[in-house]
Amino acid sequence: MSIKKVVRYGEPSLRQPSKEVHKVSQKVKNLVADMLDTMYAQNGVGLAAPQIGENYRIFVIDVSTGDEPLNPIVFINPKIIKKSGACISHEGCLSFPEAFTDVKRYANVMVKALDRNGRSFVLEAKDGTLLARAIQHEFDHLDGVLFVDHVINRFEAEEVLKKFNLPPLEVERILDEPELSEKIDELLKEKVEKEGKN
Ligand code: ZN
Fold first, then answer.
1. pLDDT over 80 (residue 11)
2. Which of 68, 91, 124, 138 is catalytic?
3. Which tens digit of pLDDT belongs to each residue from 96-147?
């Protein structure tokens, strides 16, 4: 299949909610193949369909590293059925070249989806692993939500976007996440205390 152009932050389609897939047709399978080709070409961990301009509820993830064999996971019409805990996640996004910032995430998620053959599966990712965080990041793309909407330090994020010549932070989009914020504040406090001891 082929490598597609990745939609950049600032383009309106990234903010549009995506449509459910009604049938895992050959067209959908071709789209999945293009998404995987594009993700690997860009050395990404994950990619959502709206990032290549296709507003369908599909994302792909591969958290394999180095010499490990490739391990693509395809999620079609995903639903997050459980989420708990909290973690600080240092994230970037193929739609935000080079820009990384700390965001709030759940530590544990359980997701139900269809695979690329249209078969239903359930996957649990725990303890703030890269997979747990990537699932949340990619899932968000399907609702037009971006990682910077979960930012922990707004001012740091604004600086990072400016540094890499990206459009400014959309402050009004920052999510109010009271449950997560409380746990993140505790984690930040623990981090400061630990750093103080070293
Ligand atoms: Zn992304």
1. yes
2. 138
3. 999 999 999 999 999 999 999 999 999 999 999 999 999 999 999 999 999 9
Q: If you classify domain 12-197 with CATH, what class do you get?
A: alpha beta
What pLDDT, on a 0 to 100 scale, did the predictor assign at position 195?
86
CA 134 to ligand 1 center in whole angstroms: 9
Task: Please tell me the distance between residue 197's alpha carbon and the centre of ligand 1 in angstroms.
Answer: 35
User: What does the block give as tokens for 8?
Assistant: 């950049």
Q: Is 138 a catalytic residue?
A: yes
CA of 131 to the centre of ligand 1 (A): 13
CA 149 to CA 166: how far, in whole Å? 15
Q: Is 131 left (phi over 0), alpha (psi -120 to 50) or beta?
A: alpha
Q: Do the bridges between strand 73-84 and strand 108-114 make them parallel or antiparallel, or are there none, so unpaired? A: antiparallel
Distance from C-alpha of 21 to C-alpha of 97, rounded to nearest angstrom: 28
Stretch among 24-33, 83-92, 98-107, 187-196 having the lowest mean pLDDT: 187-196
Q: Cα(52) to centroid of ligand 1, in Å?
A: 11
